Sequence to fold (261 residues):
Amino acid sequence: MEQKTVAHALRCTVTKVSYFENAQRPVVPRDLDEVLLPLYGVPEDRWPDYLEAADKARQKGWWEEYSEEVLPEWFRRYVGFEQGTSEVRTYEPQFIPGLLQIPEYTGAILRRGPIELRQRDLDEVVELRVRRQSLVTRDEDPVALWAILDEAALHRAAGGPEAMHEQIEHLVEMAERPNITMQVLPFSEGIHPGMSSGFTILSFPWPSDPGVVYVESGWSAALYLEEPYEVEDHIVIFERLAQQSLDPDASVAMLRELAKE
Fold:
């Protein structure tokens, strides 16, 4: 259906329809109910889902209170996606995944990063990361997290031996949660399909949605892959990485030994 046809039905400009389609402006529930849902032939039994989504889309998320310095636009989108996900699958070759970091570890890697932050901004970035972690630690309906850590990330000390000891002990503690699966990809496996970069697959609670793959590019950009074949390709890579990794019990045993070291 052409934009001008939708604009005529809504009695608005084509530009406004373009804003809706590009997620630059939320759709008013009344426009959905009275015009768009019947116009597009959406079955009436699915209308409540869309109306609820439209209502929620007009509410500001807690993460939107942070400044651009603390939460740049290229990452703000990811945090928004993360809040609506039902499952997170992440592979990280260089760092402990953000949802599993302790504040000391986060602060240490930010201080060594290429972007110099004021102490106030640094503290807020750490606070933001801790708030994100409530996704997997909350008591009610925590998000499922499946994390594969390259052994290299565990040996790359951040904040000194004491901080790294606490970080690895924290991983052991988090691995005991029923909603968290943790695996370590050991050096002994040699070459593997995740050599080029880390990535995160976000799945959502709608059967028709293939999900989103997030690939961070350096410290100032990211790729969001949303085509079904792109998501499926990364799911296959993730499954192969899981096959090459230690099983969860053996992974925790390795973590305990590393913590002692």
User: Anything to note?
Assistant: The first helix runs from residue 3 to 10.
